[in-house]
Amino acid sequence: MLSPNFNPLFCIFLINYLLILYIMEPNSEWRNKFFNFRMCNGVIEQKVEDGNILVTGNLKSDMSPNAMVMFWAANPAHRNGSFSGSGLPYANPEMAFDRSINVGAVKAVNGAFSFELQYPSAYYVGLGSLYVPPQVHIKVCEPGNKKYDTIVLGEGIPFRTLTYPAPPSKRPRTSPLFYASSLPVRGQESILRSAGYPKNHYVPDNFWGLKPPN
Asked: Which architecture, in CATH terms, is 33-152?
């Protein structure tokens, strides 16, 4: 028998909240990424405690050792009040970069620089036809330099898209073959585990992975 104080609306809210926390948690399979551009090189790390991105780099020897380094990236993904509306990519660059908290500039000290930003969200360009994964742009402010470099941080939050279901999936739902698959014979536990939400920011090429299509 249910307690007289049982509140089903609170249970629904709690389940949604836990789902949002799960899909928005830092990538547990993160590996440091290295970059090497014409003007600078360095490493990108994801902090375990809060999931923020730490970029540490060094300017090349032909650059001014105390140059300004600009960076900009899209806003982080939203955490809304429901699972269905959380973690979605932005519909266009204007929304992604509107008053972005991931914009700034740092001054290099003896050629070394570092900055931190919250993991940016993915977004679309071309009226939703092209999916842009999370990335950060870096520009070294030197006289006459108008170019910038782009570092792709990884894929967006898995299975959170504004299209159905591609991009970024490489198998769009354009025919019944979307459900075609060739899976190994497995036990029920293995099937259930393979159907779980991915621990890292990765969407299988066939959309389903090892999960039976449904």
From this structure: Sandwich (2.60)
User: What is the domain partition of the chain in residue ranges?
Assistant: 33-152
Element (H, E) at 194: helix 188-194
CA atoms of 212 and 26, how far apart (whole Å): 27
Which pLDDT tens digit goes with each residue over 169-201? 777 788 888 888 888 889 999 988 888 887 777
User: Half-sphere exposure (CA, 13 Å, Cβ side) for 168?
Assistant: 20
Phi, psi for residue 33 in degrees, rounded to 5: -115, 140
DSSP state at residue 75: P
pLDDT digits (tens, 9 = 90+) for 9-29: 655 555 555 555 444 455 545
Q: Rounded CA gap, 80 and 185, in Å? A: 39
